[in-house]
Write a structure and sequence with these properties.
This protein is an alpha+beta fold. The protein contains one helix and two strands, in the order H-E-E. It has one helix spanning about 5-45; strands spanning about 55-60, 65. A two-stranded antiparallel ribbon has the order 1-2. A hairpin with a 4-residue loop joins strand 1 (about 55-60) and strand 2.
Length: about 80
Amino acid sequence: MDLLTTAATAGLAAGGYILSLGHRWITLRAQVRRAELNQQGLSERARSLPPGSRLTEKTAQHDIDIVIGGATAGQSGR
């Protein structure tokens, strides 16, 4: 192989690797952003409820059960 072919092959391999890393970074960033938006929406829904309310949310990824203004476990209501 001549030098030009070797350089072109190395350049293509490096370019492919950089594209792969870019794709992985974009995918992970989108997952993080989706999680942030889901958390923000859940917080807003919980803030809008009066004390004593219960917020239950079940999806394929998580099950959430929040009691708004209720006593925490192990505490009495005195």
